[in-house]
Structure formats: structure tokens, C-alpha cells
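During the reporting period the student researcher (J.K.) took over the structure-prediction task from the postdoctoral fellow and processed the backlog of single-chain submissions. One of the processed entries is reproduced below for the supervisory committee.
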Amino acid sequence: MGLFEGQVAWVTGAGRGIGRATALALAGQGAAVALASRTPSEMEEVMAEVRTRGGIAITSLLDVSNWDMVHWTAQQIEAALGPIDILINNAGVLDPLGKLWETDPEQAGRLFDINLSGAYYCMRAVLPGMVKRGRGVIVNVSSGAAARVAPGWSVYAASKAGLDQLTRNLAIDLKGLPIRVYSIYPGLVETRMLETLRTATPDQLPPDRRQYFADQTEAGQVLSPEVPARTMVWLCSPQCDLESGAVIDLRRQPDLQTKIDRVLGDNE
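J.K. obtained the following C-alpha cells:
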């Protein structure tokens, strides 16, 4: 029996990369998975893969920056699958990169709408039910950019730093309730975002920064999406022993993999 039999997980940005891998991993542990994305074709492929493996999945076309759409989607998921027990806030964008005074204000506003407001909207949509039922786990996919300074990252880094602080403060609001919330820094993962960084223009990132991402890839330091996905499955499981509000940096906490292997090694 899987870790999440009878539970419902909502994964945003579920069509590719980390979101796709996490949705498949949760479904593999018995969760019914609601896939949300702005790209229907990608979601359909993930849903088909879940169902081929004997799991349950539905799709929802979703722009997380629209509160009315987020609220309606959460209601539709619960009507179709049941109460939402797990939320994976994975939807996010990277652009605009570059010096702050050279970035496009509308594009920057859109980034904040998705990366920060979108995560808030999804949490706001599921938390009343979680609080009422006395159970739930939320994982916010953040970034090491939130805690480190680098050229060209101002807008993206600020959105992820805000997401971390939202996570920490929510944990305080939830104190005394059996509901946990975490932020995770996946590290360098082979995704479309990483490809954008490797191929950025000089106006977006300085040459040495672009070269860093290329060098890390060549040195085999880039993770597959399945690595952060496994970590998030563990975070959502009853076996997770981290305090709610924790920010997990996979590059700086390699010891976590031993704990994860002990739990998932017997359940995959």
C-alpha cells in the first residue's frame, strides 16, 4: 500500500519538469492527483501516464495568478476527487532576467503574480478545508536564489524570498494544528528553466554566470526532476520529521537522502 492511499494531491505546473515528476511520484504512492498547468497537451500526457500505471488523475487548465480561477479550480477538484490533502505549489516563471532597471515592468509584474501571488492564492484556496479537517501538507517550490545574491536575478530572487517568508509565517499561523508547510530549494535540475539559464543572453546574465550553469551540467552536478520529487513525497509523508516552516536546500542537506531512501525504498 502506498503512503497516500485515499488522499488527494494538487500539483501546479504539473505538465513538465519537477511538477510532472512530483505528480507521478505522488500517484505512485496512491494519491489521486489533480494536475494543473497552462499547457493542456502536457497535462494530458502526464494524466495518461498516471492512468497507465493504474493511478487516478484529472487535469485543470489553470492560471495561478487569477484568484477566481484558482478558487473555482480547487472547488472542482474537491467535487471530482474529494478534499485536497496535499498542495504542491510548483508553478513558476524565471523571466525577466537582467539588471533591474532594464527589465520589463509588465513582465516583472507577471512574474510576481505567478511566483508569489499564485502560491498564496492556491494556499488560500485549500487552507480553510485543511484547517476544518485538521490535516494537510503544503510544499512551496522555491529556489536557492531566494537566499543568495547573483547578478541578473533581482526579480526572480525577490519573488522566491517572498515565498520563503510566506512559508515561515504561515507555519506560525498554523501552530498547534496538524498541518505542515515547507519551502524547498531543488538545486540545479534539468528543466526548461535551467536551459534558459544556460542559453541566456549577455543582457540577461553575465558570461561567467552562464558558464557556471554549463560547467555544472558538464560536471554531472545537475539533478533529474525525480530527485526533488522524491524529497517532496517524503515531506508530505507522515514519516517526515522536519518542523513545519522549514526551508529545505537539497544542495546543502545531502543527509536527507538517507532518510528519504529509508521511507521510499520500501514503498516504491
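The committee noted the following: The two ends are 10 Å apart (CA to CA).
J.K. will present the remaining backlog at the next meeting.
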